[in-house]
Amino acid sequence: MKISVVGTGYVGLVTGTCFAETGVTVTCVDVDQEKISLLKACKSPIYEPGLDDMIQRNVSKNRLFFTTSLTESLLDADAVFIAVGTPPDEDGSADLSYVLEVAAGIGRQMDRYMVIVTKSTVPIGTAAKVEAAVRKELLARNIDIEFDVASNPEFLKEGSAIQDFLKPDRIVCGISSERAEKTLNRLYKPFVLNGHPIIFMDIASAEMTKYAANSMLATRISFMNDIANLCEIVGADVDKVRLGIGSDSRIGNKFLYPGAGYGGSCFPKDVKALIRTAAQNGYPLRVLKAVEEVNDDQKKRMFTKISTHFNHQLKGLRFAIWGLAFKPNTDDMREAPSLVLIQQLREAGAQVTAYDPVAMTETQRRIGDQIRYADDPYEALIDADALILMTEWPEFRVPRYRIMEKLLKNSVVFDGRNIFEPDEMAENGFSYYGIGRLPKKS
């Protein structure tokens, strides 16, 4: 089979490369010449463990190609996946301009039947807009070519996207014809040998599934953050509460970790878009509005803890931050809680030195030299008044306490991801503040 993937961002690049891994001939398209040149040199423009090696392997076997020409990519293609960005508009709704621009381009270039698949996260009703955009261009060309539009939402987690694609929990496909179902079933058959299903459904339900899934996960995070904040007030330990409720099979233990708030490219954007979709249809999603409100507040709680400890006198103080990315194994800084904290600390007159294994370049691209960037985590601690952990990278989990104590001006640790043990921190001479845990004094 031969397919085209339009968009070489996170979703498009992982999708195209993983399809190529099964023997499908894949051409990835992007308007960014610099990005395409990088990919032709087998270098990924995004950080995802294992992706560079997989790109190189499939390029060398002539299964994976990169181009800026949509026309070139559509030659003999059985399907084309639209995986371009859908950034939020000012009102929170998803911006479909890039998706519909690609759809129009397909209509201007296609010369045979194909399945046009929306892989981007798009609101309910987008497939109909894609179909209308394609038909408009075919009508302008005065030709009649059969095609189908399908919805195939992605469920990839940054940092483990390749394994998520190769060994998925499920694959959701929204279709409107048996011909489209047959094409997608053939493409995805190699990925469901683990017994997990391809779930075929109507297109509107598939479009809703993506938003509902991310919104449910965001809800669990905000719920646990709310509970964690209450735990601090009443003297409970949120880690024990999490274990207690997570052992209930009806609840499960995933996404029950409190922290400094969720970020990234999916949860914030998708929650906003679903709230907006509901409002456009006259139905207020009250639970999701609360989810968003709790998350916005949670991103500010670390600063409150820090400011309270230092008696609201932060001017001239220096803080070390471990971790900048919104989660480990990615350099994604979109909606990262660390950015909110950095802004608050800077506005309070404090200085910041940060270390992140992969996200410092992206951070500097976003905020420049507002902060200092350290070459390793312990360099960041030199003369710092406190350590603030914002991303739970594995290399931070077993810190060298003696070195920390020597380098820090004050032995104070603010743990925004609860990766340290409060008792152990206190035993080693540190004042410790976590999320939903009682402060531990050395």
Keywords, separated by commas or semicolons:
442 residues; alpha/beta; Rossmann fold; 2 domains; six-stranded parallel sheet; 16 helices
Alpha carbon gyration radius: 24 Å
Helical content band: 40-55%
Write the H/E string, N to C.
EHEHHEHEHEHEHEHEHHHHEHEHEEHEHE
Report the mean per-residue pLDDT as an integer.
94
Question: How would you describe the overall organization of this protein?
Answer:
- By secondary structure, the protein is of the alpha/beta class.
- It has 2 domains: 2-201, Rossmann fold, CATH 3.40.50; 209-442, NAD(P)-binding Rossmann-like Domain (Rossmann fold).
- Helices cover 43% and strands 13% of the residues.
- It contains 16 helices and 14 strands.
- It has helices spanning 10-21, 33-40, 51-60, 70-74, 97-109, 126-141, 161-166, 178-188, 203-234, 238-246, 267-280, 286-309, 337-347, 360-367, 401-407, 422-427, and strands at residues 2-6, 25-29, 64-67, 79-82, 114-118, 147-151, 171-174, 198-201, 318-322, 351-355, 372-373, 386-389, 412-415, 431-433.
- The protein has a 6-stranded parallel β-sheet, sandwiched between helices. It has a 6-stranded parallel β-sheet with strand order 11-10-9-12-13-14.
- β12 (386-389), α15 and β13 (412-415) form a beta-alpha-beta unit.
- The longest helix has 32 residues, at 203-234.
- The radius of gyration is 24 Å and the shape is elongated.
- The model has no long low-confidence stretch (mean pLDDT 94).
